[in-house]
């Protein structure tokens, strides 16, 4: 696995890569980095894919956005620009958390360029039911709307807030010290925390056009995954997930996993992804445990 750089959409992206073959683009979320796919990258590379996992805009060592735009639209345009940078007419896109929203919007904006999607752990806005319990879980979204105050609190005690989010979101799993330090180092870099929180701020201020683009039914063949112990997003928000996709091939619930199923159950996750990528057009619709 190598760390390289490439310029796309006026951003200098750092990315992890391995393998040769059809392009698979892996997009991480918050609070995370490209190392989120540390286990998946070699599994896909061994199966004959060229895997690229970029650090999203603003996440060091990727550069900050000169215009300060960290919206989902910007992230989706980055994903499509990365396809151009790697001379790929089409690609498979895997996304978690903010990476999932970026992948979904990229697929809605340019479905011909996305061969398949593997996304999860965030509600599709086409059918996201309101739940009081979810409002309590999402307290941090409101807190992050306060510039400077949120940043100051997040930086306290060596980013203890990040440790607490991981503990609450994935109650039966603990990330390694190495992985947590990689996340904190990215946020600690000048402008890094502001960039990460910028996605939350842009999300609640998105335009009607942006909302409509993100909430339209996604037509690309999709594997959607969730963890049933996710402390950030309740699994009940996905009861109508089938209505959000014209071609939902599989909906996988990882029993015992929290908000990071791809990291908590890496072997099971890789098995599910590879089965989906190798499958024909037949729909599955079952659950994984």
Task: Give a structural overview.
40% of the residues lie in helices and 18% in strands. With 289 residues, the protein is α/β, with parallel strands linked by helices. It has an eight-stranded mixed beta sheet with strand order 1-2-4-3-5-6-7-8, with helices on both faces. Strand 5 (91-96), helix 3 (98-109) and strand 6 form a beta-alpha-beta unit. Helix 2 packs across helix 3. The longest helix is centred in the middle third of the chain and has 21 residues, at 149-169. The chain is globular, with a radius of gyration of 17 Å.
Describe, in short, the structure shown:
The protein has 289 residues and is an alpha/beta fold. The chain has helices at residues 40-46, 72-85, 98-109, 132-137, 139-143, 149-169, 177-188, 192-204, 208-215, 261-264, 266-278; strands at residues 2-8, 11-18, 23-27, 50-54, 91-96, 114-120, 222-227, 248-254.
Please give the structural blueprint.
Blueprint: E1 2-8, E2 11-18, E3 23-27, H1 40-46, E4 50-54, H2 72-85, E5 91-96, H3 98-109, E6 114-120, H4 132-137, H5 139-143, H6 149-169, H7 177-188, H8 192-204, H9 208-215, E7 222-227, E8 248-254, H10 261-264, H11 266-278
Parallel strand pairs: 3-4, 3-5, 5-6, 6-7, 7-8
Antiparallel strand pairs: 1-2, 2-4
Helix pairs in contact: 2-3
């Amino acid at each position: 696995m190598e760390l390289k750089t490439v310029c796309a959409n006026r951003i200098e992206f750092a990315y992890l890569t391995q393998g040769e073959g059809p392009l698979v683009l892996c997009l991480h979320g918050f609070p995370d980095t490209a190392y989120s796919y540390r286990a998946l990258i070699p599994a896909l590379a061994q199966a004959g894919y060229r895997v690229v996992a970029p650090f999203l805009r603003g996440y060091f060592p990727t550069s900050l956005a000169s215009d300060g735009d960290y919206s989902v639209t910007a992230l989706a345009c980055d994903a499509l620009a990365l396809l151009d940078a790697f001379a790929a007419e089409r690609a498979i896109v895997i996304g978690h958390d903010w990476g999932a929203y970026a992948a979904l919007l990229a697929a809605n904006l340019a479905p011909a360029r996305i061969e398949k999607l593997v996304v999860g752990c965030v509600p599709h806005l086409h059918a996201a039911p309101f739940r009081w319990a979810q409002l309590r879980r999402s307290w941090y979204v409101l807190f992050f709307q306060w510039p400077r105050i949120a940043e100051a609190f997040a930086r306290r005690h060596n980013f203890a807030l990040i440790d607490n989010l991981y503990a609450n979101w994935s109650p039966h799993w603990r990330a390694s010290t190495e992985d947590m330090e990689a996340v904190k180092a990215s946020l600690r870099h000048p402008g890094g925390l502001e960039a990460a929180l910028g996605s939350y701020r842009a999300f609640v201020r998105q335009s009607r056009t942006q909302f409509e683009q993100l909430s339209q039914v996604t037509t690309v063949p999709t594997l959607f995954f969730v963890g049933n112990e996710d402390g950030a997003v309740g699994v009940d928000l996905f009861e109508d997930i089938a209505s959000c996709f014209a071609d939902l091939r599989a909906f996988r619930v990882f029993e015992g996993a929290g908000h990071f199923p791809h990291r908590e159950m890496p072997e099971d996750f890789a098995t599910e992804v590879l089965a989906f990528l190798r499958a024909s057009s037949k729909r599955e619709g079952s659950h994984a445990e």
